[in-house]
Amino acid sequence: MTDHVAPVSDCSVHNCDFNHDGCTAYAITVGGSQDHASCATFIDTSATGGLPKVLATVGACQREECRHNNHLMCDAHDVRVGPGAPEAWQPDYREAAAIAADAGFFRAVWDVTSTADRIEPGSDAWFMVPGERAGLAGHGVVVSAPYGLADPQGPPGTRLVDIDVDVLLPPDELILLPDLPEEIAAACPKDGGTAVVSHSAGEDLRRKWSRHAAAETRDGLFPGSLPQQAVRWSLTSRWENDAEARRICLAHHGRSCSACGLDPEAVFGPDGSGVLQVHHIVPPGFLSETYVMDPVTDLVPLCPTCHAVSHRGFPDPFTPSELRRLLTSRRVPRQDPVLQGSLPSADQLRAEDDARKLLGLRSRRSPAD
Fold it and tell me: At what angle do helices 346-358 and 320-329 cross, to 10 degrees?
C-alpha cells in the first residue's frame, strides 16, 4: 500500500469548472477504459467550482490495470490531465461518436491558442489520437472564428473555436500514424494541441480518409471526403438517417423507388448499391414529443431525385402517391421494380399491379392469375 499522493501537475481541459490556471478540485478520480484514462471529476456548467488555490491530487483511481494503481490509489510521480485520448472527450469519445452518428454532428470547443491566426471558419478539422496506437480518429468543420474565454479568471491569451464533429471512428478502426502521409505524421501533436498542415498534405490526408472502410459502408457523402467549398450541408429528419430504420424499411418495401420504380442497383449494378434513400412520410405538424417512428409505415424508399422533389411540396412534402400523379401527368413511364438477376415474388407482383392500377395503367397479369 502506498502513502504517496500523486499531485495533478497540469490540466489543459479549459472548459472544466475546476480549471482555473490548474485544477482547484480538492482531489480527482481517474476513470476511463483499459486503453485510455479520463478525469471522472470533470464538470462543465456555468458554475465556478473548486478551492481558491491549486492543490489537486488523485484521490482515487478506478483503472485497476494501470501499473501505477496501488490499492486504488495512484503512486505515479504526478498526473497531467488534457485532451487527446478518446476518453478525454466530454462527453466521452464513444458517446460523442454516437451523437455525431445520430444527429449528423457533435459540437465541440477546441483550444487553438498556438495556431489561432491560421485557422478560419470552414476549415477541415482532423482529429488525431496520440499514444501507442496513435492515428486519425475523426473529421469535423470549424464553424466559428477564434475567440477568447469569457471567464476573466481563465488562462490569459487562450483562443478557442467551435467545431462541428461529423465523424468519429471506432477506437479499433483508427487510421494508424504510420499509414498516414509523411507530413501529417510529422506534424501530429504528440501530447495534444493543434497543428496546421499544407494544402497538399491536407488533400493527401483526405484521399487516405476517403478510402477508409467506413466511407465504403456509409450511405451518402462521407464527411471529409470532399473539400468544404464543394459541399453544401442541409438538415434532414433524423429518422431518415437511422441506419436500422433504413434497413427495416428497405427489407419491407424493397429496393425500388416508391414513386418512379427505379431500382438503382438493377440499373447500375454494384455501383448503384446504397443510392436509394428513405423518406419520412409523416407531415412535421403531426409529430409530437411522444411520437415513435415505425420504419414500415412511416418510411418509404425513394430515389434521390424523387426524394428531392418530395421535399419541394408545401406546406408538407409530397407523398409517394402525389409524386406518382406528377409523373403520370408528364407521361413519364414507371421503371420496372425488378431486382437484377432475380425473379419478383408474388407480393412484389401484387404491389406492382396495385401501383399500375393507381397510375391508371392496365394490369400485366392475366385474369387467371
Answer: 60
Secondary element (H or E) of residue 70: strand 69-70
pTM exceeds cut of 0.70: no
Strand 175-176 to 37-39 pairing: unpaired
Q: Taking the alpha carbons of 157, 163, 169, 175 in that order, is the dihedral positive or negative?
A: negative
Amino acid identity for residue 285 in this structure: G
- What's the number of CA atoms in the CB half-sphere (13 Å) around residue 361? 18
Q: Which residues contact 199 (CB under 8 A, 6 or more apart)?
A: none
Rounded to 5 degrees, φ, ψ at 211 are: -90, 0
Q: Find residue 31's DSSP bridge partners.
A: 38
Query: How far is C-alpha 262 from the geometric centre of its chain's CA atoms?
Result: 29
Alpha-carbon distance of 302 to 299, in angstroms, equals 10
- Backbone angle region of 246, left / alpha / beta, with phi > 0 → left and psi within -120 to 50 → alpha: alpha
> Taking Cα atoms as reference points, which of 273, 329, 327 lies closest to residue 305?
327
Coil, strand or helix at 267: helix
Please state, in angstroms and rounded to a whole number, the distance separating the CA atoms of residues 329 and 109: 52
Whether omega before 315 lies within 30 degrees of 0, making that bond cis, reads yes
Backbone angles phi, psi at 159, to 5 degrees: -120, 135
Single out the residue of 185, 183, 147 nearest to residue 163, CA to CA: 147
In single-letter form, the type of residue at position 315 comes to P
- What gap in Å lies between CA 332 and CA 324, rounded to an integer? 9
Q: Minimum mean pLDDT among 155-164, 172-181, 197-206, 337-346: which range?
A: 337-346
| Residue 200 host element (H or E) | helix 199-210
Torsion angle (degrees, nearest 10) of CA 189, 190, 192, 196: 0
- Alpha carbon distance 165, 98 (integer Å): 11
Tens of pLDDT, residues 25-56: 888 998 865 555 678 888 877 677 888 888 88
**Percent over 90 (pLDDT), the chain:** 7
In DSSP notation, 155-191 reads PTT-EEEEEEEEEE--GGG-EEGGGS-HHHHHHS-BT
The identity of residue 133, as a single letter, is R
Q: Could you tell me how far CA 126 lies from the centroid of its own chain?
A: 13
For the record, the C-alpha cell of 316 comes out as 408538407
Q: Which residues contact residue 297 at a Cβ distance below 8 angstroms, ignoring those fewer than 6 apart?
A: none
